[in-house]
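Hi support team,

I've been running sequence recovery on a batch of backbones for a student project. Most finish fine, but this one hangs at about 90% for roughly twenty minutes before it completes. I'm not sure whether the input is malformed or the queue is just slow. I've pasted the structure tokens below so you can try to reproduce it. Let me know if you need the job ID as well.

Thanks,
M.K.
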């Protein structure tokens, strides 16, 4: 059985959809915090298991001996390490065959502040003795959806990354990678460094937004403090705004520019081009 945690989230649903195209539905389980939100998956033949990262007693029942588990990282930045450890401990107690984890690009060496919890989660998985697959995902292009929409509305995309480049890929690309890893024959421990085929800059994002929308959009590079204030003024909680503002400084230093080609190799096709993602963002708005 392949068990997908966080299966009703944005990435999780795409992974389940992909699995159902590759394996019988009775070989897929969705481990979710709220089973009621997974009724549509149950209707497609997926087994639903309650699994709340904050309630270890549910995790104890979520896994079975021989399962392959995809641990989709929690979005509770700052407290997700404890959540991840609880999942890993429950999986080890159940005797699962393999655990795959959605980590971050170059988790062991990246300067990104948000990598600390991923790095510690990887260490806990290694210590558990469970055979593992680390899906070290780079940046999701969809992270910039708000920036694209802001650019169309106000004529400018704000940031503090200068000419730094981002080798992003779409959420669907990363989901396809998870499906490939979960359904392939993995032998031993495996680490994938996953990112888009082409790195782009925020000025290029503005140019693509302008080309797709037909409206003038420019990139406005700000000092770090001004960018942070703009994010807070846009409604982001200060800790989240600080995280994103700091990430732009890391982008300026090349932290998310690596293009090893492992993602396209794993999914067997090129990653989604920036223009295609921008088009989808504007279409869905």
């Amino acid at each position: 059985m392949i068990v997908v945690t966080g299966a009703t989230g944005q990435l999780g649903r795409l992974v389940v959809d992909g699995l159902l195209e590759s394996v019988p539905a009775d070989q897929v389980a969705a481990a979710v915090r709220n089973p009621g939100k997974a009724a549509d998956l149950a209707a497609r033949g997926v087994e639903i298991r309650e699994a709340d990262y904050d309630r270890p007693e549910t995790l104890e029942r979520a896994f079975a001996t021989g399962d392959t588990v995809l641990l989709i990282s929690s979005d509770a930045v700052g407290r997700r390490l404890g959540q991840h450890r609880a999942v890993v401990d429950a999986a080890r107690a159940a005797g699962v065959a393999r655990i795959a984890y959605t980590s971050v690009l170059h988790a062991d060496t990246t300067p990104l502040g948000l990598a600390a919890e991923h790095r510690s989660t990887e260490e806990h998985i290694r210590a558990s003795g469970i055979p593992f697959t680390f899906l070290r995902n780079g940046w999701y292009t969809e992270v910039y959806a708000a920036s694209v929409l802001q650019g169309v509305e106000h004529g400018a995309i704000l940031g503090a990354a200068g000419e730094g480049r981002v080798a992003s890929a779409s959420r669907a690309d990363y989901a396809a990678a998870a499906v490939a890893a979960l359904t392939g024959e993995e032998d031993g421990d495996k680490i994938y460094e996953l990112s888009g085929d082409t790195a782009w800059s925020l000025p290029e994002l503005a140019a693509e937004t302008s080309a797709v929308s037909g409206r003038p959009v420019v990139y406005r590079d700000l000092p770090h403090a001004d960018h942070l204030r703009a994010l807070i003024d846009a409604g982001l909680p200060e800790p989240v705004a600080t995280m994103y503002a700091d990430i732009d400084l890391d982008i300026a230093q090349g932290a998310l520019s690596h293009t090893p080609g492992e993602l396209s190799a794993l999914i067997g096709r090129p990653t989604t081009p920036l223009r295609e993602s921008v088009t989808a963002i504007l279409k869905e708005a």
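--
Follow-up from support: It reproduced on our side and the slowdown came from queue contention, not your input. DSSP finds twelve helices and eleven strands in the chain. No action needed from you.
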